Amino acid sequence: MMKILTFYINNKKYGVSIDNIITIEKNDRKITDIPKTNSIIRGVVNVRSRICPVIDLRMYLENEENELNEDKKLILFDINEKNGALLVDNTDNIMDVDTENIEEFESDRVKTKVVNQDNDVFVLIEINDFDDFLEH
User: What's the pTM?
Assistant: First the structure.
């Protein structure tokens, strides 16, 4: 069994394991731009005295910049003792998913995991994929 937080980008549902999630916050803080960074990094934000790079999941998934407003959510996470925040449109809920309902899917040589449970199908985002973006 795996616990997955579901969220939305452009009205499309995605999920992420809660194993590395610290908290979910409203996007009501100033995001400071960092020059010469990867286009998916919107800048950094101070949350609870932690400086976190903000990863724009809309840019990462759809190559389209997300609006910065208070309606958006920040999913704070920690991997390998580094903090980060995922900028998403909205969060949904935490659900239990049987690992047998998570399937590998390959398209154009890109491997991803897809959750197929209770007539609900969505892509599972791997937090570890963002480790290289968190060097700070």
Answer: 0.89
